[in-house]
């Protein structure tokens, strides 16, 4: 997916200024459209950014298809060459169900 120059999602210089002193930057990706667009932007620009990024997806096991979302995020990251961690959690509120 190639973005036209006028379609730049985030100003690269601004983003670099935000992360300039960071040793690690974890990007939370839910699998929704907003975070997937951010993920693709990061992959497109990773050659211009320091190698400090990791993607994390939290599977709260609240939605019936939450495991599918986790797999989709993992597969997308693998296809884009980004490190991804999926953490499965179960909230106390949903343990009695």
Task: Write a structural description.
By secondary structure, the chain is of the alpha/beta class. Helix content is 37%, strand content 16%. It contains three helices and three strands; from the N terminus they run αβαβαβ. A three-stranded parallel beta sheet has the order 1-2-3, with helices on one face. Helix 2 (33-45) links the parallel strand 1 (25-28) and strand 2. It starts with 11 loop residues before the first helix and ends in a 9-residue tail after the last strand. The mean pLDDT is 85.
List keywords for this structure.
alpha/beta; three-stranded parallel β-sheet; 3 helices
How would the blueprint of this fold be written?
Elements: H1 12-19, E1 25-28, H2 33-45, E2 53-59, H3 66-80, E3 84-88
Parallel strand pairs: 1-2, 2-3
Share of β-strand residues:
15-25%
Tell me the number of helical segments per DSSP (H or I, 4 or more residues long): 3
Give the tally of β-strands. Answer: 3
Oligomer: single chain
Low-confidence stretches: none
Largest sheet: 3 strands, parallel
H/E element sequence: HEHEHE
The assigned structural class equals alpha/beta
**What is the CA-CA span between the terminal residues?**
41 Å
On the 0 to 100 scale, the average pLDDT is 85
Rg (CA only): 15 Å
Anisotropy-based shape? elongated
Helical content, roughly? Answer: 25-40%
The spatial strand order of the largest sheet comes to 1-2-3
């Amino acid at each position: 997916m190639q973005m036209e120059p006028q379609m730049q999602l985030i100003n690269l210089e601004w983003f670099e200024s935000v992360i300039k002193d960071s040793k690690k930057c974890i990007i939370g990706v839910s699998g929704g459209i907003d975070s997937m667009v951010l993920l693709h932007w990061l992959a497109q620009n990773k050659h211009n950014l320091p190698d400090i990024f990791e993607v994390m997806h939290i599977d709260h096991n609240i939605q019936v298809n939450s495991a599918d979302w986790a797999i989709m995020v993992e597969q997308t990251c693998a296809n884009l060459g980004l490190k991804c961690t999926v953490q499965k959690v179960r909230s106390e509120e949903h343990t009695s169900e």
